[in-house]
Amino acid sequence: MTRVSGVNHVTLSVTDLDRSVAFYRDRLGARLRCLWPRGAYFELEQLWLCLEAADHVSVRGDDSHIAFSVGAQDFDAAVDRLGDAPVWKENRSEGRSHYFRDPDGHKLELHVGGIADRLAHYRQRTPEGMRFFD
């Protein structure tokens, strides 16, 4: 059976390309790889991120968001680098997380740890109705 092997790339619509390029490059440390009048390509380790200019951006009102990995030793500096980026949620999960918005209101997160850490946490404190598949 053919199956999806992972995330290929993420594209976010932005209303001010220059402002967003500066945010992702300067505040998140994304490596700018390509820039054109209506878009930009970045690399964040294994993630290919595309910004695409748009006249309007619709922001979701739910908990949908993109989480970026950050090492435990770099977490505080990464949060500090975000400066006045608005916080949209307080951390209630295991591990260190910081929930913030980009200039167009996209919901983002810096998170320390991976799925193995999350599953280990819930195996020790399993909420009612949670099932594991190994």
UniProtKB/TrEMBL annotation:
Cell division found in the keyword field: no
Keywords tagged on the record: Transferase
Domain VOC, first and last residues per copy: 6-113
Matching InterPro entries: Glyas_Bleomycin-R_OHBP_Dase, Glyas_Fos-R_dOase_dom, GlyoxalaseI/FosfomycinResist, VOC_core
Coiled coil: none
One Pfam family hit: Glyoxalase
This protein's record includes keyword Transmembrane: no
Molecular function terms, GO-annotated: transferase activity
Protein name per UniProt: Glutathione transferase
Source organism per UniProt: Kangsaoukella pontilimi
